[in-house]
Every structure is written in structure tokens, then in C-alpha cells.
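note to self: dont lose this again. the chain is below, predicted strucutre after it. 152 aa total, dont forget to put it in the shared folder this time
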Amino acid sequence: MELIKTILSWTHTISASLSLVFGIIVLLGVKGNIRHKKIGLWYFYAMLFNNITALFILNAFGKWFFPHYLAIACLIVIIPGIISIKLKHKYWHKVHIICMVLSFYLLIGGAINETFLHIPNLRPYLVNNDPVVGITYMFAQLFFNGVLSLEI
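---
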């Protein structure tokens, strides 16, 4: 059982890390070319692995907790984001951009949470519900609001 937990944890960590790298490349790169399409698909698959494995990781008390619902939300966002490309409906481009930027925002939010959770000097801020954590999330949200306003 411990081996399964280790494999699950490492798969989640690696896929989350790859999602971050692929997401940054796609976000900052030229849109619509072959490179964007290829790396964007890699981002989608890495996010799929990241969020599916997140659903199987339990907290210290052996049950689901808030990040599981964020993983479900992210799956709900990335799947229409990729399907919209294939269907090319009237608003496919806007749906794709909104879904992918929201998925990357959720990924960054998870990274912020994990940073505060796993770095010993930062953990007290999270545990004590310090405003520093909320301010960090606020800056991420402002950044992604700016990205969305530029992309749409």
C-alpha cells in the first residue's frame, strides 16, 4: 500500500511540475502555431494526470479535503477547453482561452498552497490563516485577470 502511495505522490508531483513548465511555455509563447498546439496538448495531458492523481491523494486524516474539489473544478475546465478546439463552434476560441487560463490559475493556486504547506518557514502562515497567504492568492488572481483581459 505504501508503494502505491509513493507512486501516486510522485506521479502527481511530476505531472504538476510538467504542467507548470508546459503552461508557462504556452502562456508566454506565440499562439496558434505547431509548437503551441503540441505543447498545449502536452499541458492538457499533464493536467489530466495531475488532477486525476490528486483525487486519490488523501489528507493526513484519510479523507477528501478542499483541494480535491479544486481538482474536479480543473477537470471540468480543461476538458471543454480542449474539446472546443476540436468542435470549432462559434465561440470556440474564447472558450478555449478562458478554460486554459482558468486551469493554469488553478494550477498556480495549488502550487501556492503546496509552497506554504511544505516549506517549514512558510507553513505557520497557512496554519494560522495569516493574511500573507490571501495576499499571495490575490496577486495570482490579479495577474490572471490581466492575462485574460489581454488574451480575449
